[in-house]
Design goal:
By secondary structure, this protein is mainly β. The chain contains 1 helix and 40 strands. Strand 28 and strand 29 form a beta hairpin.
Length: 650
């Protein structure tokens, strides 16, 4: 075939599950082993009428059907239940079903054996089958006219599939080769041979000898390595009764993982010296009830040392834990000014190249817990306290007026005052979604959260996040509603930064604000529309699996997993007292009517974008989303935006 793919799928009416389908020689029908209410029978499915006919109707199992070359007969293995004491409780006979007469003929072969996987010979005059009549499962042939049986193979390990009932031979119609499974050197191999290549040995059709398959076997077909090894093994020392005792389990942490990127380095330069390095490690006890996560990093000077330690207890239904962290944030800038420095009894004019470093340190202590209501629903809670403080360092590098360096110094300046926050939150979470190659495909996800801030800010926030996925093969239609609000007397004071719509993982196309420097009247977009103490977002995506598993994607691939997406993003940000205008085309500036500096209008308007993206799953570690977006309130088609996200689809 030019390309392997699923061209059509069928449901067999009335059959709950089935296995071992066999195609009729004319290609119009399929016979299967169907299971209904735990009983396995043969069912004939017509590909033209989509109707199913049950061929067998007994309590015994009927498996491994195969067609005769003329399409009149179906040979299969029929279970036989034995009531004779000392024999197997059940075995399998070879049976032939006549489709014209609607009759079944059972062939009397190896009465107590498992006679499985029968196949008609290409000329229709014989039946190949597997049997363990001599204790090994080998290939046999039964000739219909002479009623003689011939053993074709004599393998010590026999011929078998992965399970005892798996088909292990195949005989193509119109061909000469017989294909069969053979287990060799810890692998299942497929061997082929013509019938003439086998050593035909006639055997008694009523003979069975199961001694080789009995534990322990009475006679060994090969050297008995196991028994020999057990006989010659060293004598085990005797353990005294009081030498063994029960010790209660104690949880002790052992190293589970340490990052392979652990590193450390030192750098020197004209402006300052620095160090860098990081290491991450995970510890847990033997049964995984307790886990400890640690992270240490250094990037810059000794002040830029950061770390975090988190603990989680998973022993009971309530999962709980805590975390302690110290995170430095570094900001800075450069400036060249005219300055003076003392020189002897006078002031020497110099150039001062100033390098400023402002560090904000965030110390945090958090406690968290979750309580599952089911596999898809849970409550989450968290309480934390954070302290923020600053350090301001300036490096002065002096140069004479003819730009000759004459030294420098470092000074510690007065830093801004710090703040502290305390925060508690409670959330209800639902998630029954099924994740595809790069994003969820089916189900829904929801989060309802209430959060309260104390300390430097008296604020509480509310979050409602609902996502729904409709899967209609091969595409998924995804919807998201997202509302985040900040309330309280300090919400307007900017103690906590307002929410921002312009992040590309929320609304795509508003990362680069368009300004027309040649025609000021064309500048309509107000960047203040992107931020506020309250935001509402709506997203819609149509997701097409492009490459990946055959059942999902248009192009089959084991390594390149990608989706193509069409999207519409919309959002609105506002604050208390803001006038919301739903005019999607705000007024254009008219310079001829401006007599003086206009008063800033406290208003906001929705923003909308549309476009397409491609999400690529990079070896299961990272999902990249390059996209192109048309931001309607930010220049529209005149300002098409290209961007890149590093997050899975919402």
């Amino acid at each position: 075939m030019a390309r392997s793919k699923i061209t059509r799928e069928y449901r067999i009416p009335g059959v709950q599950s089935f296995s071992n389908p066999a195609w009729s020689p004319d290609g119009r029908k399929i016979v299967v082993t169907g299971q209904v209410d735990g009983i396995s029978d043969l069912y004939l499915f017509d590909l033209n009428t989509f109707e199913a006919e049950r061929l067998t109707g007994d309590f015994a199992s009927n498996i491994h059907p195969a067609w005769s070359p003329d399409g009149r007969y179906i040979v299969y293995s029929q279970e036989r239940i034995n009531d004779v004491p000392g024999k197997k409780k059940f075995s399998f006979d070879i049976a032939i079903y006549d489709l014209e007469k609607k009759t079944t003929e059972v062939i009397d072969l190896f009465g107590d054996a498992f006679n499985l996987n029968p196949c008609f010979s290409p000329d229709g005059k014989g039946i190949f089958f597997l049997s363990d009549a001599d204790g090994f499962r080998n290939l046999y042939k039964y000739e219909l006219e002479s009623e003689r049986v011939y053993r074709l193979t004599d393998y010590a390990r026999g011929i078998s599939g992965i399970t005892a009932y798996s088909p292990a031979i195949s005989v193509p119609s119109g061909g000469k080769l017989i294909a069969y499974n053979y287990y060799r050197k810890t692998y299942y191999e497929i061997w082929t041979a013509e019938e003439s290549q086998f050593d035909r040995i006639e055997v008694d059709r009523n003979f069975t000898d199961m001694s080789a398959a009995t534990l322990p076997p009475l006679k060994h077909a090969a050297a008995n390595i196991v028994d020999k090894g057990l006989f010659n093994r060293a004598e085990m020392p005797k353990l005294e009764v009081d030498s063994m005792k029960i010790i209660p389990y104690k949880s002790r942490f052992k190293l589970d993982y340490i990052s392979n990127s652990a590193s450390v380095g030192v750098s020197t330069g004209i402006y300052r010296n620095g160090m860098a390095g990081s290491v991450n490690a995970i510890f847990s006890d033997m049964v995984g009830n307790n886990q400890l996560f640690t992270s240490l990093n250094l990037n810059g000077e000794i002040y830029d040392f950061g770390g975090q330690v988190a603990f989680i207890n998973q022993k009971s239904k309530v999962k709980w834990g805590g975390a302690v962290s110290h995170i430095p944030y570094l900001m800075g800038g450069m400036n060249l000014v005219l300055d003076t420095i003392p020189y002897k009894d006078s002031q020497l004019p110099v150039y001062n190249f100033m390098v400023n470093f402002i560090r904000m340190f965030a110390d945090n202590i958090s406690l968290f817990a979750s309580y599952p209501l089911s596999q898809t629903r849970r409550f989450e809670s968290q309480a934390s306290s954070s302290w923020y403080y600053y350090r301001f360092d300036r490096y002065n590098y002096y140069y004479t007026l003819d730009q000759i360096p004459i030294g420098g110094n470092k000074e510690k300046l007065k830093a801004p005052k710090g703040d502290n926050f305390q925060q508690i939150s409670l959330a209800y979470v639902e998630d029954n979604s099924y994740f595809g190659m790069t994003a969820p495909m089916q189900g829904h996800r929801a989060r309802l959260q209430l959060e309260k801030y104390f300390g430097a800010a008296n604020i509480f926030t509310t979050l409602a996040d609902y996502r729904k996925y409709f899967y209609a093969r091969p595409a998924t239609f995804a919807l998201r509603f997202y509302n985040y609000g900040m309330f309280g007397k300090d919400a307007k004071d900017g103690v906590i930064m307002p929410f921002y719509l312009g992040y590309p993982w929320i609304i795509r196309g508003y990362e680069d604000i368009r300004y027309d420097r040649s025609a000021a009247e064309d500048n309509r977009f107000d960047i203040s529309w992107l931020s506020g103490t309250r935001i509402v977002v709506g997203n819609a995506e149509l997701r097409f699996p492009f490459s990946g598993p055959e059942r999902l994607a248009l192009i089959k691939s084991k390594f390149f997993l990608a989706d193509i997406n069409l999207f519409v993003d919309a959002g609105l940000a506002w604050s208390e007292g803001t006038k919301v205008s739903f005019n999607l085309k705000p007024e254009t500036l008219n310079l001829s009517n401006i007599q003086e500096m206009p008063e800033k209008k406290n208003e906001s308007s929705p923003i909308i974008s549309t476009g397409a993206s491609v999400r690529v799953n990079v070896m299961g570690y990272l999902i990249l989303e390059p996209y192109v977006a048309v931001p309607f309130q930010n220049g529209g088609f005149k300002n098409i935006q290209f961007g890149l996200n590093f997050t899975p689809g919402w």
